[in-house]
């Protein structure tokens, strides 16, 4: 079955420290990969995507993600976390038929950045 | 540029009733997708419309339906509401149907079924 796994329900980081939010996927072919962030009582906001090319993708607000095809992973990273980064983060992937309108989402990782 | 607008933002219904949610996409976006978000099941795809035609449908019962109008605005309807339908319903639009096109989400409609 096609799926996305975010193994950590919560990640706690001190402000100024680097952060990593993990994502692995199980979709055959060459799916497209996305990261979204959700703040309380808000919809999802797009952070970045991997389509093809360089495995390191840079996105909004200083976030980046590293695509690793052999490990089927797409981990989200930021060199220096801010308190304002605290939110719910979702990894998503297009299904095997690459229908981008029906993304498969992970369960989400709650990021908490403490001062 | 206005974002994706969903109405109403909050609503309370009772079991057995029906509900209609509305979504106005970003101007120029012709694809609209709907997702259900719950604490237990996470984000689940409901359906996608493009040019007034349903392109894809998720694994939801027939009580969930939708449509898209010629101006790309979309509505979804849930009939015979059940307690388990309580959720945040998110609408997202994108300019086309390529897998690489980014979904832009609205703030959602939070439905509570009593």
What is the H/E string of chain B? EEEEEEEEEEE
Mean pLDDT of chain B: 95
Span of the ends, CA to CA of chain A: 40 Å
Provide the β-strand percentage band of chain B.
over 45%
Question: What global shape of chain A is seen?
Answer: globular
**Computed Rg of chain A:** 13 Å
Low-confidence stretches of chain B: none
Poorly predicted runs of 5 or more residues of chain A:
none
> How is the main sheet of chain B built?
7 strands, mixed
- Can you tell me the overall shape of chain B? globular
What is the number of E strands of chain A? Answer: 12
General description of the model:
The complex is a heterodimer of chains A (115) and B (114). Chain A has 115 residues and is mainly beta. Chain A has no helices and twelve strands. Chain A has strands at 3-5, 10-14, 19-21, 24-26, 33-38, 44-50, 56-58, 64-68, 73-78, 87-93, 104-105, 109-114. In chain A, strands 2, 5, 6, 10, 11 and 12 form a six-stranded mixed sheet that branches. A four-stranded antiparallel sheet of chain A has the order 3-9-8-7, with no helix packed on it. Chain B is globular, with a radius of gyration of 13 Å. With 114 residues, chain B is an all-beta fold. In chain B, the strands form two sheets. In chain B, strands 2, 4, 5, 6, 9, 10 and 11 form a seven-stranded mixed sheet that branches. A four-stranded antiparallel sheet of chain B has the order 1-3-8-7, with no helix packed on it. Chain B starts with a strand and ends with a strand. The mean pLDDT of chain B is 95. The interface between A and B is medium-sized, with 26 and 29 residues.
